[in-house]
Design goal:
Elements: H1 24-36, H2 40-44, H3 48-67, H4 82-90, H5 94-101, H6 114-140
Helix pairs in contact: 1-6, 3-6, 4-6
């Protein structure tokens, strides 16, 4: 009868070897692509399944926001919190600019679903901003 098998530790390559190293240029490009189209930065970083999931979530929330009468905020000096909401909506990238140009996101406060639409649009923008930061961390090599 033989004794228990000995486990031999597998040597791990030093940090950064065997995987692409992060660079500021790579991080900047991934972040910009992530702002341009949600999930595109992660696709550039070869995170295909994450990219698809992130695109579906952000695009879905944006579509629900527009469909339920949400408002795209614009800075208003008389309403200081509108600056924060505008920043969150800018996280949508070109959908914010395109939606505003197409007349979407005007919002109708009389609609029953207006506040839900606002919440969906703001959530989509904030989620995408967080995904842009995640793409930055991956692209710069701070996150594996």
């Amino acid at each position: 009868m033989s004794g228990p098998e000995e486990r031999v530790p597998v040597p791990r390559p030093p940090e950064g070897e065997g995987q692409p190293r992060g660079t500021p240029q790579r991080a900047l490009l991934a972040s910009f692509l992530g702002w341009l189209v949600p999930g595109l930065g992660h696709l550039y970083l070869r995170r295909r399944s994450q990219a698809i999931a992130f695109f579906l979530v952000v695009a879905g929330f944006s579509a629900l926001g527009f469909a339920t009468g949400g408002k795209l905020y614009r800075p208003d000096p008389e309403k200081p919190l509108s600056y924060l909401a505008s920043f969150a909506d800018l996280g949508l990238g070109p959908s914010y600019l395109g939606g505003a140009a197409l007349g979407l996101g005007q919002g109708d406060p009389r609609a029953v679903t207006h506040e839900h639409g606002n919440a969906f649009l703001l959530s989509a923008g904030i989620m995408n901003l967080l995904l842009i930061l995640d793409a930055w961390d991956i692209g710069s090599g701070r996150k594996g």
